[in-house]
Amino acid sequence: MLSLPRIVERTDTPYVALRKDVTLPFDDEIPAILAQLSAYLAQRGLEAAGPVFFKHNVIDMPYLQMEFGVPLAHPVEAGGEFTSGVLPAGRHAEITYTGPYDDLITVNAVLIGWARHVGLVFDSRPQPDGEWFAHRSEVFHDSPAKESDPTRLRTTVTIKLRDT
Question: What is the pTM of this model?
């Protein structure tokens, strides 16, 4: 089930994430990535201030430069494979989907199609290695470890709009 697409105003949100280059499909890599993120948080005594997100920095299908992260209550320094930063404030187009993760490529396409149809412009730019996004992510409100019914998993796709 899809929500109606909408425009929301988001505030700056500090985060920490594991940066990885992946190739679709990368489903088999996700458990190890999330375990590594969880271990990093625990080792540093950091607590997530919200659900896990997968941030798409550069897209050149099927190749993605991504960050697998969590929001934090305050900024932190990170190193190695991990990065820290701030998800930017501003207007974002978003849509929420309830259902299996296998459908998220289609959900992204629905949001992009709607945004184009209504004349919205994303905060993105082409570059030699693909399209860069100021903020494009999938926010996973539920964990498959806690929700055994994949038709009940809730995910929000959000893409920052260009400032006017």
Answer: 0.95
Q: Are 136 and 124 spatial neighbours (Cβ–Cβ below 8 Å)?
A: yes
CA 91 to chain centre: 16
Which residue's entry shows tokens 């992204």? 108
- Determine the 3-state secondary structure of 149 from DSSP: coil
Q: In CATH, what number is assigned to the domain containing residue 37?
A: 3.20.80.10
Does position 164 have pLDDT exceeding 90, yes or no? Answer: no
**Domain for residue 1, yes or no?**
no
Number of domains in the chain: 1
pLDDT (0 to 100) of residue 116: 97
The SS3 call for residue 35 is helix
Where in the chain does DSSP place strands (E)?
6-10, 13-23, 53-60, 63-71, 82-87, 90-98, 124-127, 130-133, 136-140, 154-160
Q: Look up the domain containing 91 and give its range.
A: 6-160
* Span 132-148, average pLDDT: 89
* Contact residues for 131 (Cβ-Cβ < 8 A; gap 6+): 58, 59, 60, 124, 125
Tens of pLDDT, residue by residue over 55-101, are 999 999 999 999 999 999 999 999 899 999 999 999 999 999 999 99
